[in-house]
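=== How it folds ===
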Amino acid sequence: MNYQNATPIQEQAIPKIIEGKDLIACAQTGTGKTAAYLLPLLDKISHAKHGTTSTLILVPTRELATQIDEQVTGFGYFVEASSIAIYGGGKSENWEQQKRALTSGADIIIATPGRLIAHLQMGYVKFDTLKYLVLDEADKMMDMGFSDDILNIVRQLPKQRQTLLFSATMPSKIRDFSRQILNEPEEIRLAVSKPAAGIDQQFYMAFDRQKIYLLEHIIKTQDVQSMVLFTSQKAAVAGIVRAISKLGYEAQGISSDRTQEEREQIMRDFKNKKFPILVATDVLSRGIDIDSLSHVVNYDIPRAAEDYVHRIGRTARAATKGTAITFIADQDQDRVVKIEKLIEREVEKQNITEALGLGPAPEFDPKRFSGLHGKIGGRPERGGRSGGGSRDRGPRPEGGDRGPRSGGGRDGSRPARNGAPDPKDPKHQERIAKAQAALAALDAGQAPAVPYERPPRAPRPEGETRPARPPREPRTPRPEGENQAREPRAEGEEGQRRRKRGGRNRGGRGPRPEGAAPAAEGQAAAPSAE
């Protein structure tokens, strides 16, 4: 496995695990924490009775479950220990295979909480002999809403067990959760949320339309052996893959839209160097473990600053070197500030698009774009002030007045909203005056100052005549002897009165008596004498 020296997390965790103590460990990705718990557990399993499940490892994603299962195979090459990864998706045969492993008693079960709950509900899973419980990427499982599922699983485990919790971050919810399942744990905390020292972080300013060409420049000018490109939107994966392919480079995309078999095959091909560029979503940022990954590209900025650390943590693993490249668009600038605050470092923002003939790139000015919702032109977040503090306008001159307010809104207190015109705009005032004059003229019974005139038709070109209308089709003659469908109209004076009233006499009204005057408007007609 090419391990020569223990990493800091391994130096501190392995002795405590061997002693049998519960452990809560906080360490960044890429520090060897998986080996920190697998190596001592495999040592304990090698001296125990086989054929029963002794270890349960809970993970947030199927990719991480597969990765740990592969590491168990590598670390336990000389140890008689069986393992299986339990996760959702795939064919029905996978369910049956998982069921056989759970009932026969594999030594190590690596499972996602949701799929393990489904097996537990069937009634054939027994954990009476379980001795070790591991929660890997506990913070990610909390973020994905697995806390209730984990507690349901823990209730079905023996109380006498050793529990190990590993997390990349340590928010208060993790500490509160650990008190429910751990017993007087030892705590290890190493450089929370800090990228590995071997990562060369590079930030490039670019508009969205410039990113693909900037990526082409980086591929040509840097020694790219293998690259994982992350995007926050799974809908963008296919488009980025097509754009990279048009540039002449082979790439594949992997997201939750792919079937489990397709994702596993793509990962195998990428690890075997069959293509150099893999485009992935944030779901895979913790489940991708590739040796000698030279570059990680953040095609856009992740929503959470912690996800940035997980993304770039795919490179420079196990004290190696790697490059992390991040493209910064206008809408991402406020997120960059949060990332730099988290990693406690300010990264230089490079602006090279104009030198490459791509036009100017956005200037880095995070205050101007604070609060955008992830796209240019997005509305600011509610509240208007970051962090609840007041706006820093500086002190008012001693004895000075507030000064004039900016135009728009009530009393000019804020800019007009919803595109409303500025009342102080001379052009707007001129339009209002014209409209008021036209209304006054109409009220006085006068015609508008500028009556509407129909625009003249364009003259017909000389020599061109109006096209003749096509002849009408002759009507089909009515068959002889067939009567007209409707009744003939009434004749004479009575017929005219009927047509004015809209039809025949209704409601029993008869004809007006001879010599009688018609009824006044609003008064009922006299009843018929008949």
In short: The first helix runs from residue 8 to 18. DSSP finds 15 helices and 14 strands in the chain. The chain has a mean pLDDT of 79.
